[in-house]
Amino acid sequence: MSQKTEKSGGCLCGRVRYRAMIDGDDAYWCHCRMCQKATGGIAAAFVQVEPADVTWLSEPDWYASSPIARRPFCSHCGTPLGFAWADGKGDMDLTVGSFDDPSNFRPVAHAGCESMHEAWLDTSDLPRQRSDETQSIVSRWKDAGLEVPE
């Protein structure tokens, strides 16, 4: 068993912030239709945590996404922040992308595979382009008097 480390995260606009004690770097993909709809993506990338290990520095809004689940999010910017069981039992999930530094997390499993979109799993052969090399993005940030963020 590894030592838990503290990681921080929050929403895009910064209104909702959290700290979480994380045990390792394991993450997973959930491909179920509810997670697809809740995130607007082809899957949700989650880190599983014990609810007692999450401290909300500013409270999220909560959406009852089904009779068995609820999801924390920011009602100001729309960032999905996780998943929790409605009965309050068991672990909860935090979205990988909401961590301030998600770079160490690694997917170790797939859940909700009945709705998996296989064509989106291995995209390693697709062309890649950085945001700071995309003129339509660079010019808009420059017009706003700013550099392209990472």
Largest sheet: 7 strands, mixed
Mind telling me the C-alpha Rg? Answer: 17 Å
Task: Estimate what percentage of residues fall within beta strands.
Answer: 35-45%
Total count of domains: 1
Gap between N and C termini: 33 Å
Unreliable sequence segments: none
Shape: globular
**How would you state the average pLDDT, rounded?**
96
Tell me the number of helical segments per DSSP (H or I, 4 or more residues long). Answer: 2
Tell me how many strands there are: 10
Q: Helical residue percent? A: 10-25%
Structural class: mainly beta
Strand order of the largest sheet: 6-7-8-9-4-3-10
The CATH class turns out to be: Mainly Beta
The CATH architecture name reads Beta Complex
Write the element-wise H/E pattern from the N-terminal end onward.
EEEHEEEEEEEH
CATH topology: Metal Binding Protein, Guanine Nucleotide Exchange Factor, Chain A
Q: How would you describe this structure to a colleague?
A:
This protein is mainly beta. The chain has one domain: Beta Complex (Metal Binding Protein, Guanine Nucleotide Exchange Factor, Chain A), CATH 2.170.150. The chain is built from two helices and ten strands. Strand 1 and strand 2 form a beta hairpin. The relative contact order is 0.21.
